[in-house]
Design goal:
heterodimer, A: mainly alpha, 2 domains, 11 helices, flat, B: alpha/beta, six-stranded mixed sheet, four-stranded antiparallel sheet, 37% helix, 21% strand
Chain lengths: 278, 282
């Protein structure tokens, strides 16, 4: 029986058997290969125009080896160790202040940027603020802040707070847009004011996400405040920049170890807290 | 007393959900509004407290013309209108007590709302209502721990704590099992009687409407096609409500339908009617 049925399909039909290929995301196979080769050509052109030759690459590896040798073991003098400690404390303090200030400024922006609870004009204004804050990199903001306010941690705090607004408002606004509007509608229907509707119907729904996001941003801000010192905006980055300008690579290595330690601790705390509040 | 006159609503999409609905609800009446899905039942109820803005006509609650109010006046007026929702519409992360007390928000300051600081009489009233709906001792539970029936009881307590002049219920039983549905309907009718407040329930289960309501309103395609005591609701009038049959001659032309009607009259609901009957008109 089995042979009978298989022979009925038989080789006679093989000629007009249909074939199938997975459809491509591009319009046709030719377009697909064109796009791929264009990307490859672009990469090749970039490498060529940057003049990265194999020779240059090898000598780079040589320098790298020398650098690592001079970094090990990490070493600080007694005096430098004290300085390192002071700057580390300053770094953490900057992150704390910038997180609190940044989130405080983010709140009105976040509520304004939530499509479901905000009037149109406020929505566009808030989205504009968020885009502006996200468009400019933190180091550029820090440079501007240093020019405006002078060297020191104040400039760093301003720069990091500014970056916090874009990040926090955007993500928090998304959480606000995800809330269940049924409860909000019902609170509104009892005759509650706009503000009451917010604190009674909206806020309870987003408190856990708020806490999670705040800690997450705090951990990012600790990382940011270690780097803004490079341009003079306070924190441990100031030491880092001075140390490598003086070729004190063993000291540079000690600073890097300190930064890694602080960031790891911050990430750990942040992860634990976020898991708890979910 | 609630009175609508030629109430109409056309959505911005161009759909006319309500046209010229004139209704008067008074005393401690329990009024059920029935009709097929999309007939405008929800739109009507939501127009009353202006969760949906009516496009034409007027709505009067006692002496207040609701359609003419500005935002502040509307807030004050909404305090007099209690509403129970199909999906309960509670604030999930708040306690039972907070949800009930939200019915008093219209009477307290923003600061008091923030601190959950309600006057002692409000708290007392909330406790009494929790007793009434059978949730005594549950005040500190978060509502996301409750069952559907318990949640709807919280929703009812929240509406009643407002001491409203009318109680609206938008499909209050649609998310509940039949047993719990009857409990909820019983609770609503008891409240109408005890609190001397009219209740308008929009509902798609015709048997529940017939069993609990004093009066029935029938909507078809946005128009009021039936208004009378529950005892007057005949198979013929159901035909008019659910299939838009012409009263009275054309409703009786189909002999199949008439013979079939007797044995299942009470258990049927709108969906069944529609699926086994294909109206030739329209």
């Amino acid at each position: 029986m089995a042979t009978e049925s298989s022979s009925s399909v038989g080789p006679a039909d093989a000629a007009d058997r249909r074939t199938w290929q997975r459809p491509t995301t591009f319009r046709s196979r030719r377009v697909k290969w064109l796009v791929y080769s264009a990307v490859l050509a672009l990469v090749a052109w970039s490498v060529a125009s940057l003049q990265i030759t194999p020779g240059r690459f090898l000598s780079g590896i040589g320098y790298g080896y020398e650098l690592i040798k001079s970094m090990l073991p990490p070493e600080t003098g007694q005096e430098n160790l004290l300085r390192l400690w002071d700057r580390l404390v300053e770094t953490i303090a900057m992150a704390m202040v910038a997180t609190v200030a940044g989130i405080a400024m983010s709140l009105p922006v976040a509520f304004g940027a939530a499509e479901n609870i905000s009037p149109r004009p406020t929505y566009y204004l808030s989205r504009g603020i968020i885009s502006a804050s996200r468009a400019i990199d933190g180091l550029i903001v820090a440079i501007v802040a240093v020019i405006a306010l002078g060297f020191g941690p104040l400039a760093g705090i301003v720069a990091i707070s500014f970056k916090t607004i874009g990040f926090f408002s955007k993500l928090f606004a998304e959480d606000l847009e995800d809330i269940d509007m049924g409860g909000v509608e019902a609170v509104e229907a009892t005759g509650a004011s706009r503000f009451q509707t917010l604190v009674y119907g909206v806020v309870p729904q987003v408190v856990p996400r708020f806490a999670g996001l705040a800690v997450y941003r705090w951990d990012i801000n600790i990382r940011s405040s270690t780097i803004v010192g490079i341009v003079g905006a306070g924190g441990i980055g100031v030491l880092l920049q001075r140390a490598y300008q003086r070729y004190e690579y063993d000291y540079v290595a000690a600073i890097l170890v300190a930064i890694i330690a602080v960031v790891l601790v911050a990430e750990f705390v942040s992860a634990v807290v976020r898991r708890r509040v979910q | 007393m609630l009175e609508t006159e030629k109430l109409g609503k056309t959505y911005s999409t161009g759909d006319e959900a309500l046209s010229d609905v004139s209704v008067r609800i008074d005393g401690r009446e329990v009024v059920a509004m029935i009709g097929p899905s999309g007939a405008g039942k929800s739109t009507f109820v939501r127009c009353v407290n202006r969760l949906v803005e009516p496009t034409t006509g007027s709505i009067r609650l006692d002496d207040t013309e609701l359609t003419a109010l500005d935002e502040d006046e509307l807030r004050d007026a909404r305090r007099n209108i209690g509403m129970v929702f199909q999906e309960y519409n509670l604030v999930e992360r708040l306690t039972v007590m907070e949800n009930v007390l939200s019915g008093r928000l219209g009477y307290v300051s923003n600061w008091a709302a923030l601190r959950r600081n309600f006057p002692p009489e409000d708290v007392e009233r909330a406790y009494e209502l929790l007793d009434l709906v059978g949730l005594d001792g549950m005040e500190d539970k978060r509502v996301d721990e409750l069952s559907g029936g318990q949640r709807q009881r919280v929703g009812i307590a929240r509406a009643v704590v407002q001491e409203p002049k009318i109680l609206l219920a938008d499909e209050p039983t649609s998310s509940l099992d039949p047993e719990t549905s009857r409990d909820v309907m019983e609770l609503l009718t008891d409240i109408a009687e005890d609190r001397d407040v009219p209740v308008l329930i929009n509902i798609h289960e015709v048997d529940l409407a017939e069993a609990y309501a004093d009066r029935i309103l029938g909507l078809h395609a946005g128009e009021l096609v039936f208004d009378g005591p529950a005892s007057d609701l005949t198979e013929e009038s159901k035909g008019i409500i659910y299939r838009g049959e012409e009263p009275p001659e054309s409703a009786a032309v189909d002999p199949d339908w008439l013979s079939e009607a007797d044995d299942e009259s009470n258990s049927r609901n709108g969906q069944n009617h529609r699926s086994d009957r294909l109206p030739a008109e329209d």
